[in-house]
User: Fold these one by one.
Assistant:
Number 1:
Amino acid sequence: MKPFEQITIIGVGLLGGSAALASLERGAARRVVGFGRRRENLEEAKRLGAIDDFSLDLEAAVKGSDLVIVCTPVGSFASLADRLAPILEPGCLVTDVGSTKAAPVREFEEALPDGVHFVGAHPIAGGEKSGIQAARNNLYDGARCVITPSQKTDPEAMRRVVEYWECLGMRVESMEPEEHDYIFGAVSHLPHVAVYALVNAIAQMKTKTDGTVLSYTGAGLKDCARIAGSDPTMWRDIFLVNKKWILKSMDQFQAALDEIRAGIEKEDSVALDQSIRLANKHYSQMAKDDRRN
Amino acid sequence: MKPFEQITIIGVGLLGGSAALASLERGAARRVVGFGRRRENLEEAKRLGAIDDFSLDLEAAVKGSDLVIVCTPVGSFASLADRLAPILEPGCLVTDVGSTKAAPVREFEEALPDGVHFVGAHPIAGGEKSGIQAARNNLYDGARCVITPSQKTDPEAMRRVVEYWECLGMRVESMEPEEHDYIFGAVSHLPHVAVYALVNAIAQMKTKTDGTVLSYTGAGLKDCARIAGSDPTMWRDIFLVNKKWILKSMDQFQAALDEIRAGIEKEDSVALDQSIRLANKHYSQMAKDDRRN
């Protein structure tokens, strides 16, 4: 691809820092500038070679950039869009790494002036670690990236943004923003809700000697609990921004939970067997898909 | 330890097969005999060197054994206790690998004659794989084993059973059967309930093109879903046998879930932040404990 002259990364943590590292290493950008609120963090990003330079001033940070990547929690997008609108240079592209897409797309499209184009992206990468220290140049390599064009999306901007994420090694596919939020509300946001509740519920339970029962945690709960390690602000924002679809998913979850509860209460071994075997079958399918990916 | 002359393994799957392999390799038994319902499975166990011999007849399988290890789903324990009572030789010890302990301890203590002693055990080992093919000689090595003596437990039988599990490399600790079922109802059984419900709920949701949203599963849900791969019959039985404590845990879980739901509905960012940070803190503690173990 033709490299961007200068990319500005807004929010240089795990996702932003990894995009910065990969952009420089894969020749997607000639130069990368970081923007954030904490100087020490930006200095660390520079020391790690993720960014060439940084600024604590947004206008200075985006000056001369032909691509801006928004990597802050999704709750900050509306105000960032407003702040970026008057200072981005004509022809500048904006993309993001947010885990929800309907609100970001709407907020940026409403705020940005003609000639500055937003193309929403959700690279499916990350994990329970966060911060620039966890950033790595191959975080995106081989992973999926969902691009969410709207009817207003500029085709050439879209082409360039897809090319950018592909240059980082991603398998790009596109879908409507609402469809994205519905799907990821189910497969990603709902599991976070469930695991936060699970960990908090169990942590409240005490042994006879007033210790926490959590000290008896086995491999199963540990595997689940890992997503409780993700960045809290990021997830609080996702819960607020994707309220509609998360609540819908929670309704489905509640129904499935009630079904198992009824099976246990009535000691209905046939119904329980069915629920468990169904989940078991879905798990096998997921494991099979995993091997194919 | 002084080896048992002959151990009979009742149910030669992942747990039973692994106990058999380790018993022979570590000199805990001079000879291991398998009992089960499916001849092909027992033949496979013999071929893999887990057992010296097998029988499809329970009386023949326990003849001459001074230790019997019950490795079948916990729902089968009551009837097995009745069948074993008249055929075990005087002085024979009985232990098990069941994930619930109050019912097994009660069922065996009621059924077994004087001079034949039961000592309940829950080796915290296993995983999403099951069957003799998944058995391995180090499954128990370094893992925890909870022994659940009652007021009726014979001290010498207890000493021998502890010695046996320690010989397999386990870190043995003891607690009352009810305390065990309360703790593992929370840290192990509840997560299974939650994950079965989670997987079944998500699997019902369809994309616009009528595909399953599960195909968008990321690392977080995959990590969680692994426990949905565990043996269905084993888990159905656990749900039925530990009904009391699982329902109590589910009440706690429901309360934690309702709290997060209320936070999302009211868009209460402070409350959500608190719930998420609390879970995050518990996760960090679990990760720390893990490194210490």
Number 2:
Amino acid sequence: MTINAVVWGENVHEQTNKVVADLYPKGMHQAIADCLNAADGVNATTATLQEPEHGLTKERLAQTDVLFWWGHAAHGDVADEVVERVVEAVWSGMGFVALHSAHFAKPFLRLMGGPCNLTWREAGERERLWLTSRNHPIAAGLPDYFELENEEMYGEPFGVPEPLETVFISWFQGGEVFRSGLTYKRGAGNIFYFRPGHETYPTYHDANVQTVLRNAVKWAHNPARRIANPTDAPNTPVDQALEPIEERGPRLHKDGEEGYR
Amino acid sequence: MTINAVVWGENVHEQTNKVVADLYPKGMHQAIADCLNAADGVNATTATLQEPEHGLTKERLAQTDVLFWWGHAAHGDVADEVVERVVEAVWSGMGFVALHSAHFAKPFLRLMGGPCNLTWREAGERERLWLTSRNHPIAAGLPDYFELENEEMYGEPFGVPEPLETVFISWFQGGEVFRSGLTYKRGAGNIFYFRPGHETYPTYHDANVQTVLRNAVKWAHNPARRIANPTDAPNTPVDQALEPIEERGPRLHKDGEEGYR
Amino acid sequence: MTINAVVWGENVHEQTNKVVADLYPKGMHQAIADCLNAADGVNATTATLQEPEHGLTKERLAQTDVLFWWGHAAHGDVADEVVERVVEAVWSGMGFVALHSAHFAKPFLRLMGGPCNLTWREAGERERLWLTSRNHPIAAGLPDYFELENEEMYGEPFGVPEPLETVFISWFQGGEVFRSGLTYKRGAGNIFYFRPGHETYPTYHDANVQTVLRNAVKWAHNPARRIANPTDAPNTPVDQALEPIEERGPRLHKDGEEGYR
Amino acid sequence: MTINAVVWGENVHEQTNKVVADLYPKGMHQAIADCLNAADGVNATTATLQEPEHGLTKERLAQTDVLFWWGHAAHGDVADEVVERVVEAVWSGMGFVALHSAHFAKPFLRLMGGPCNLTWREAGERERLWLTSRNHPIAAGLPDYFELENEEMYGEPFGVPEPLETVFISWFQGGEVFRSGLTYKRGAGNIFYFRPGHETYPTYHDANVQTVLRNAVKWAHNPARRIANPTDAPNTPVDQALEPIEERGPRLHKDGEEGYR
């Protein structure tokens, strides 16, 4: 079974900043997709902010098993309609991997329900990611820690909900720590947040980071059939109750009426 | 120290449905506030949909320790601006107690990040709530189970994120179960979802339900000073790093620049 | 890759009780192993209390990917040495599936750290299991609920730690509820508790129960290499610190000394 | 209401090591008790390994609201009978605060169900604890981080179960991170693990550490009446079922029989 991944990239700094363009000549999204395509059984394509509907039509999302999201400078330019579409796709079972500055991306904020804020510093300092969940599938093949010699710092407190699992915690040279790998589930969809990936550093060319990305696409993929109507709240009529009951007392709703939203 | 609670009520069916008006002549919100005011150290007032800004001005929320929310028929009439204000107040440390049909209330949906859907049946059937977390403060003074002779049924799967703790699970006469008491934290704010409370039944007059409400206001209250700017993502300049570091490599941001949102 | 599963059965009532012997002529353990062997890529064998070392030598556990455990009348007869061996195997990455009355089995108690108590009633009443985690891999292929016409009742409060995920909750005809499918992780090992399976009923012949068992073996299996010494607490010498530090202040331990246990 | 705290100390290095004796002339346990007694409404006493039954008789534990535990060199000397007694007291509702090297103390191991292992280095290096859960009651009055200039290093992966909440994460000068403040619940008892406190440094004289200890005693305290028999698994007879049912099918147990353990 092939996993269909879509890597969404904002694709702004690649066009406007020479450092980023030199590091990622085909765009960060393409570099990440290339990394995923090196895994057996993964077919990764890309989508960008500039495409119609940001490349994320309803039809495409319906065919997407896992969506990776990288955004930074243009969070505000993502159309709310597309955001809601992404969120519903997650609820229906699509995996979602939020990368680095996507902590403030609209779909991630919507899925978390928290402020997702943090502290930051752009100094090219050393980051060391420590494994906190032994043999977690997202860490398959990795040692107990790995280093990125130049990264942006993100610091705690990180305003996310308590995760299902903490997989990585980062140490920063300047004195901070950060929960760098966190898992969640929303509706039927698996979510993974992974911290590294500042655009002015070659992070997505790092072998360990690439291992995490390839593990993450497999972890986030749910092979079950997507839920058709993930927000439905169906009425169960009294005469179809699983145990025989008789209606008692007053009621508000008429037979066959929809519930309020 | 007095806990300032505000009970927000939609106040629609109390005005339009004789059954509800007879059960709650001063409104459901007032009945709940009266219940809370019977607890030592609680000062509960009310706010309703029909008031300017739904009774939830920024100033009032700043003074509110715990906000209870009951809504059903008019979720869509709640102004998005007020919803965001409530959500930010929770992130800054205000407690939030979502009651019954508030599973589909805009602030609860925003805070959960999930679809929050369920199945339902309005048949006045028996509900029995079982305690699942021994000696949880929200269950103080309660036996291992208690019954409500007439309630609306809510059934699983309930589309909420995995909670911090499951406190109650309901058994329904017609054959369903439901996670009826769930705790969460978002930002600095404590959140409790409590299922019972359909408007056509005298649920908020029930002694055990009242015990839960009075326990919940104390549990959700966080005495710490509210966080002033709960969404701030401050930059830490290189020269103020806690450990001495030197800036290395290229960077995107200029000194003193704000981060992207 | 083949998953090696071992189904451990107490094998007492099969020998002493005609009802059980008639339902499971080859033993409950063999019935469960047969069910698992019907899945692609699973090789299930059995082990019983009566074998030397209860069939669970250190060598065999080292080759076991997932251990299923069914015990009831003879929990106290399981040797503590074997229990510790099982617990360490879980910590090193072996999956563990505790079935029904194994809530009081020694390895499960050791892994949970809680009392694992509950209420019970043996009346052959109807149990209905509801899914609470949409599209969870352990529920693959199952509808939102399924029924067992005759089962023993287990009731809340269930004295287990808050799980990573609640997958199933049971409704019982006599008025109770129970968290029937719960996931945990201890060390590197995945753990699933699954409630149904009283020995006087044909539960393990039920198609939906069999689907859960076959899903569980895949979910609990961790393909990563087992951790060699899952309880090691190694010293990191000062001169091998990842960042250069100088030793300061007094110390307790001599160079190369083991830590206390 | 006064909270009765007992601080259990191993009291070995205070007697045998001049550095420790000079730092804590009345013992570490007494220093911690003194700190707790400085809080309003707390009455803290001590117990040590050397006392009969290690100072933890059944009667005393029944009167203890929160037990603090510091041990290191003599974990193996703690009698198993006392360990089980402590564990049952936690299940019945007593709070438990495990300090530093108590990660390998028998009661903590029993309550966690995991290996609780870690890496370590005794170099007097700098530790900086970062808050990860905004406005958590255990962090009341603390800034977003605080420092200990000389501490032993503990490093990830830390072999504990996923906590209810992560409250603190430590940064170490030598390059490691560690989850330094973790909450759990076992049975009816609240549990907090707090990392700092190596005996050769003046950690328990630090003002911020003292604030954590005083917050922890209040957080861990559960004012509910202790559960009398926290491991009971009572039978509910068929004729006392909450919903009328008729016994069906074969059964194993006779009327009034105890369940198996």
